[in-house]
Amino acid sequence: MIPLGGLEQIGMNITAFEYDDSIVVVDCGLSFPEDEMLGIDLVIPDITYLKENIDKVKGFVITHGHEDHIGALPYVLKEINVPVYATKLTMGLIENKLKEHVLPKPVKRKVVKYGQSINLGCFRIEFIRTNHSISDAAALAIFSPAGIVVHTGDFKVDYTPVNGETIDLQRFAELGKKGVLALMCDSTNVMKPGYTMSERTVGKTFDNIFADNEKHRIIVATFASNVDRVQQIINSAEKYGRKVVVEGRSMVNVISTAAELGYLDVPKNIIIEMEQMKNYPPEKLVLITTGSQGEAMAALSRMAANLHRKVSIEPGDTVIFSSRPIPGNEKNVSKVINELAQKGAKVIVQDTHVSGHASQEEIKLIYSLTRPKYAIPVHGEYQHLKAHAELAQGMGIPKENTIVLSSGDVLELTQERATLIGKVQAQGIMVDGLGVGDVGNIVLRDRQHLSENGLIIIVLTLEKYTNQLLAGPDIVSRGFVYVRESEYLMDEAKSIVYAALERCLDNKVSDWSKIKTEIKDSLSDYLWKKMKRNPMILPIIMEVE
Amino acid sequence: MIPLGGLEQIGMNITAFEYDDSIVVVDCGLSFPEDEMLGIDLVIPDITYLKENIDKVKGFVITHGHEDHIGALPYVLKEINVPVYATKLTMGLIENKLKEHVLPKPVKRKVVKYGQSINLGCFRIEFIRTNHSISDAAALAIFSPAGIVVHTGDFKVDYTPVNGETIDLQRFAELGKKGVLALMCDSTNVMKPGYTMSERTVGKTFDNIFADNEKHRIIVATFASNVDRVQQIINSAEKYGRKVVVEGRSMVNVISTAAELGYLDVPKNIIIEMEQMKNYPPEKLVLITTGSQGEAMAALSRMAANLHRKVSIEPGDTVIFSSRPIPGNEKNVSKVINELAQKGAKVIVQDTHVSGHASQEEIKLIYSLTRPKYAIPVHGEYQHLKAHAELAQGMGIPKENTIVLSSGDVLELTQERATLIGKVQAQGIMVDGLGVGDVGNIVLRDRQHLSENGLIIIVLTLEKYTNQLLAGPDIVSRGFVYVRESEYLMDEAKSIVYAALERCLDNKVSDWSKIKTEIKDSLSDYLWKKMKRNPMILPIIMEVE
């Protein structure tokens, strides 16, 4: 068992299972960049290990259609062409993604139903129905010669789901009776006591809000991928006689895919184009939009900032945030709320969201149904994995059988023992524009330095052989100080460069790298003493014969 | 009434009150930079209006000793030398700050007691006892010919404070009987229903944690300024026979000031130097440290990252976060918690903090005691101010008398009416190193651009008159791609520059700015098409005769 991502972090879920000549891979997600990854668009897993063992790799089995489980597939499938197995909606969303990329050759894809098994080398994989914040989520029972591993994927226990049925607890129990070697269970909400509320409770809140605000336009921001949430907004819209407008590219994509595949029940004519909005009074309209995380370029943020071309916020608009801010997004969300409030909108955030992940009691339920020998918590930062291990110990699993792994660990599991037998490459690979992996730590360090301090460029033209100054020093700065206000500073900088240069000539220093260092160091000293600042200093020497 | 900061934002509190020839200023705080203020250390208020009316300015009256109320004083007092009035601990903390700066000449300072009034021009200012997360916090009754304005400062109602007495509710009531023209009341927690818990409840939690972890070292991270919290840690330490070590520069400063002035009751010999730690077993020690917000350079973060020179985290250490993450700091706090957990520490965050700000029911209490004619909410983002105005309306204040101001608004208040009569400069001024206000929007925009995309510098030496290329193009990049991996890219870039230059020569373009634009545009096009990236491109032309 080799997790190539998803441990010690939220996101970029991918785990390889290997036995003899067979490897199957569960999920292939991306993660969003950390704050210090300046300019990076997304992070994908390092699949070097899979490439080196490509003959063994039988395929990807995917638990559900969220970015942190499918988002890296287009990148990875460009490098290794292996089949992909997933439930219907999940596959629909994967196909959406693949359309945006050019694969060297088509990839085999197979839609799997709940309860169905597929044989991949010496593994048999069974898809088990679960509940999550997207339909068609599956847990996996991985049958191997070493025993059965149950991987929950992201899940919760919802006794009244909006779409589909309750998680197949009977099957978990049956597997438990057979004997489960290891349980790999979602840790996202392991710090939360009690049970996660049913998705349906949000529908009740929507109904109340629609009833209380019958005179105003309603705008609901939520995750594009939360198809059940969208369903409930449409349900309330129908009940209260409103037309629905969908805004935001990802929202339009997901809704059309889900509706096409029958995962969204859309009454005829309820959805209208944005252009038709003007034909309806505000109180007959609901907008469903992206931007619930305060993302600067998302539709709701543009509306709030008066930058949206087609929708402007009017006093009286009722804006519902049907989401919770993901850690790191709190301030952006707050900014959008302030902007909306300033334009006279009423903003509602209470009881408008429930999590898609199991809380403590639900996790305990899965342990007591499956009774695994080993507990290997997945999907979480270290603090979550550790808390999860402690919870598993509370469920009677011996401490030595609760295993907190790091990405890249190679764990050998048998009926007798669990042993860490190695380590493979599992750092995330950064994607910036079309570049995959061409931005590394040096580049990021430079971006960091530039972002905090700006830069000063000093250009000199020297005569070859004599090192006489033919032109310059020219000084150009960016992101340092506003130049017109600091001409004196640039003048002083110039004389420091002259002096440094003269010292070099006097001492017969002709090595350019030494001249550059001298210039850099003297200017750097001066600026630190004078301003307590530390810009990047780049001396460039041109040579003319 | 002219708020120069503190409205539509949390932080940088400062409000001027003017009548005839007198101006008094309440508070003089700083704010911490927003995410987009790259490289900025802090933000201070723009006091242009005070400088222009310096003859009228009678002094600063300060409500309490937190950074967002006193932090800008050293900067502002360098520009306008006026007296400062504050309670004892507040003044002690102000003096700490002033010591770190060089003022052109000494500033008059006067310590004021609760219940005492000072006369400043035609104003009389009375300091009223309140509760907050620092001792010696005061509300102000501002008596003016136009009427009485009550400014709460930051406050809560604590019936069992750790130090000092409960907020002087009787005085608020008395003022209400006399007739309060306007109430300016803290909005920080106006979204929170109910009452804020007493500071003393945290002491109980500490006792429980000390009892439960009697075999381990305890480390408590909290705000340096929360003197009452520190008192409670010391109380528990004494009760459970532990020595106390204080770590972090600001923590040491505040504790010594508070102890000196009698705001901290420190049993003899309980505090030891860090060097003495080795003489005690872990279970006999408590460390009180900075870093509760996950700040990269703070003591706890350095311990967690194994970068602290004197303390390393050991398995079994019990680390208490006695704080809540300030919005924007959640991810950093989480990172530190993960690092601590990985080193085997037990991290406790539950029930270890209470807010220092009044919740809804406490705010209502102040309204019903003071019964102001006008409600002017302060200390909050727009959403808070607006919610506060609605709460005031719920308390019977007519809608037109609840006034949500922006920083810079000039509000004229009389017994008859409240009128917005103007606007003064009130943008924050950014401080970067020793530079105050020399980093503006252009510099920040460049830093942003550099941080996300890096830069490419192209240097050419041209012959004067003929524009013949004498040297170059040399291409230097930083923060763009790791150069050794992309030599082909730099080669291609060079040929694009050559081509652009040739086009210019062919078309007899001799204007250097046009040549630069041609180079920049063609390279920019190429990189966007090839990589979907947009680095800053800086062509520099040197001229040699």
From TrEMBL, chains A, B:
Residues 11-206 form the Metallo-beta-lactamase domain. This is Ribonuclease J. NCBIfam families: MG423. The keyword Transferase does not apply. GO terms for cellular component: cytoplasm. Belongs to the metallo-beta-lactamase superfamily. RNA-metabolizing metallo-beta-lactamase-like family. Bacterial RNase J subfamily. It comes from Butyribacter intestini. One of its GO terms (molecular function) is zinc ion binding. Its main location: cytoplasm. It comes from the Bacteria. An RNase that has 5'-3' exonuclease and possibly endonuclease activity. Involved in maturation of rRNA and in some organisms also mRNA maturation and/or decay. Keywords: Calcium, Cytoplasm, Endonuclease, Exonuclease, Hydrolase, Metal-binding, Nuclease, RNA-binding, rRNA processing, Zinc. Its cofactor is Zn(2+); Ca(2+). Homodimer, may be a subunit of the RNA degradosome. Substrate binds at residues 224-226, 353-357. GO terms for biological process: rRNA processing. Pfam families: Lactamase_B, RMMBL, RNase_J_b_CASP, RNase_J_C. Its EC number is 3.1.-.-. It is found in: Cytoplasm. Zn(2+) binds at residues 64, 66, 68-69, 132, 154, 379. The keyword Magnesium does not apply. The active site is at 186 (proton donor), 357 (proton acceptor). Ca(2+) binds at residues 39, 41, 432. Binds 2 Zn(2+) ions per subunit. It is not clear if Zn(2+) or Mg(2+) is physiologically important. Binds 1 Ca(2+) cation per subunit. Seen in 1 crystal structure, it is not clear if it is physiologically important.
